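Whiteboard transcription, Tuesday session. T.W. wrote the structure tokens on the left side:
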């Protein structure tokens, strides 16, 4: 399967999962990242070990979601300081 074919399949899958059910863009990004991460994990594990452990894959995806959501919360926290007005100097 070529890269173009994989991207078309991924786009179709995301469109079927998200757009037809009225999900917002945040959920679409989560679903797209999970699909990309699971495919990359599967290819890497099978290429290097030749076996697939579903429990390890589930743990990896769970940790990925935790890190993804934690990083998103960190960015929202940091954006609060960016939106705040800078202090002015008193004469």
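and on the right, the sequence the group agreed on:
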């Amino acid at each position: 399967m070529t890269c173009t074919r994989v991207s078309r399949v991924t786009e179709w899958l995301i469109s079927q999962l998200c757009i037809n059910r009225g999900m917002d863009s945040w959920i679409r990004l989560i679903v797209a990242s999970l699909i990309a991460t699971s495919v990359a994990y599967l290819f890497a594990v099978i290429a290097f070990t030749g076996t697939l452990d579903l429990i390890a894959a589930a743990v990896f995806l769970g940790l990925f979601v935790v890190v993804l959501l934690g990083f998103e919360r960190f960015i929202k926290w940091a954006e609060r300081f960016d939106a705040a007005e800078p202090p002015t100097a008193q004469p």
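Someone added at the bottom: DSSP finds three helices and no strands in the chain.
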